[in-house]
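Q: What residues go here?
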């Protein structure tokens, strides 16, 4: 390890530390890291200015922006809030049915929305529901956080880390679903059952619901139906990407333009609501990882990792799953995806469907282990505080550790069976 590699490792660790401790916002931490990486990279001639600009994957940025615009238009239509309120009505005041409904809705909404946005919407709905029925909100909030983190694991647009991994691996939308959909569906059922067993005594008693109509929450029915059509168009086009000859980012941006044109909303207002924090964090962190990769450090680490796990598909897959899963409990899963993706693609023997699938599962499943594991858990704890309820670190972590270990354990079994790794 030479002087230049040590400098870039320190820049990387500083970026992670600033992001994890929230000394500055995550986006600012990443931009500080990018500035330092650019300075030292140019100073030591690790790369030139033109090469540095290539560190930022514009395909990923455009994909993110397109999806964010589409879901922001859908959120303004009241589509997602309608789904939550309808689930409550269907439950008929039965806490067990309500609990399962909220878990399913939370996971399903996060398939289309960014996890922080999904948390905001579900938190608002749950605050209303638990007050209305006078239920203890803690079981519902914790479960929703965990299910939102789990939702969207099997789709290219289900989470930012999925987009990072999918583009690096060259996995299509249909390939993503083909590899992981069965696992995610099974994980939904297993996780909901585990959460129900942990919280069944705290869910409350059956109560009569007041008479209300979920349609009353929809102010613009025309926009509501248009949003459904745009979301369906987005999904259908993603499913047929292989035949279209264009990238996922082109589909996302195209649907975003259609959504803006049909929404009738002021585009400036929609742009204000986009998750720019994530955009700038990813852009800055790409620069940090790109600089570190140019020093040759990631290639050395990936080669050593492959040798450590015994150069077998089973060993490399399970090591990737558990290492990325445990690392995501302490570090943003976006950062883990951005770090591991080039490491895996740099070694031909690691660059395989089982290992990429393991990285997807690991980065997703480790993100809800503690209240500090990710944006979703921190936002959920904050929502409870606004309701005057304090959730201790230990109370959440107890549930988070149990569910994460169950999920990672099942994911290990699934990957072995799905890819015949025991052979």
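A:
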């Amino acid at each position: 390890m030479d002087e230049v590699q040590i400098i870039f490792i320190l820049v990387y660790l500083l970026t992670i530390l600033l992001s994890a401790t929230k000394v500055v916002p995550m986006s600012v931490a990443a931009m500080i890291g990018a500035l330092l990486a650019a300075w030292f990279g140019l100073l030591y001639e690790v790369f030139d200015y033109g090469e540095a600009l290539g560190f930022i994957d514009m395909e990923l940025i455009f994909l993110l922006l397109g999806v964010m615009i589409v879901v922001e238009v859908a959120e303004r239509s009241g589509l997602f809030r309608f789904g939550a309120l309808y689930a409550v009505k269907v439950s008929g005041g039965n806490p067990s049915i309500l609990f399962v409904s909220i878990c399913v809705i939370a996971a399903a909404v996060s398939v289309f929305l960014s996890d922080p946005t999904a948390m905001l919407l579900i938190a608002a709905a749950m605050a209303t529901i638990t007050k209305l029925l006078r239920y203890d909100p803690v079981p519902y909030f914790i479960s929703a956080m965990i299910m939102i983190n789990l939702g969207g694991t099997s789709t290219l647009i289900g989470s930012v880390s999925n987009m990072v991994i999918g583009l690096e691996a060259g996995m299509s939308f249909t390939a993503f679903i083909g590899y992981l959909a069965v696992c995610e569906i099974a994980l939904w059922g297993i996780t909901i059952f585990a959460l129900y067993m942990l919280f069944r005594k705290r869910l409350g008693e059956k109560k009569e619901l007041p008479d209300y109509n979920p349609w009353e929450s929809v102010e613009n029915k025309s926009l509501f139906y248009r949003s459904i059509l745009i979301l369906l168009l987005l999904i259908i086009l993603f499913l047929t990407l292989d035949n279209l000859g264009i990238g996922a980012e082109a589909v996302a941006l195209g649907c975003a333009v259609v959504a803006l044109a049909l929404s009738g909303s002021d585009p400036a207002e929609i742009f204000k609501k986009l998750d720019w924090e994530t955009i700038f964090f990813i852009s800055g962190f790409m620069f940090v990882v790109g600089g570190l990769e140019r020093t040759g450090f990631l290639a050395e680490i990936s080669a050593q990792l492959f040798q450590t796990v015994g150069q077998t598909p089973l060993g490399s897959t399970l090591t990737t799953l558990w290492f990325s899963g445990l690392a995501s409990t302490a570090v943003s899963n976006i950062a883990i995806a951005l770090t591991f993706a080039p490491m895996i693609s740099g070694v031909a023997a690691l660059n395989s469907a089982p290992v990429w699938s393991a990285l997807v599962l690991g980065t997703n499943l480790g993100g809800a282990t503690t209240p500090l594991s990710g944006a979703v858990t921190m936002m959920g704890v904050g929502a409870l505080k606004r309701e005057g309820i304090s959730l201790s670190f230990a109370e959440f972590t107890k549930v988070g550790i149990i569910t994460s270990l169950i999920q990672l354990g099942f994911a290990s079994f699934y990957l072995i069976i799905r890819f015949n790794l025991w052979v």
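A: Context that may help when evaluating the design: The chain has a mean pLDDT of 83. Residues 70 and 372 are 29 Å apart (CA to CA).
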